[in-house]
Amino acid sequence: MSMPGWVVESGQDEGVPNVILFDLDDTLFAHREAVNAGALSVLRQLDVPPSTELEDAEVARWTELEELHYTRYLTGDLDYLGQRRARARDFLAPYGVEFVTDAEAETWFEHYLGHYRDAWDVYPDTMSVLGALADRRLGIITNGELDFQLAKIAATGLAPLFEHVIASGEFGFTKPDARIFHAACAAFGVTPSDAVYIGDRLHTDAIGATNAGLRGIWIDRLGATPADLAEAEASGVSVITSLAELPALLV
Ligand SMILES: [Mg+2]
Question: CA within 20 to 30 Å of 166's CA: 4, 27, 108, 196, which one?
Answer without folding.
Answer: 108
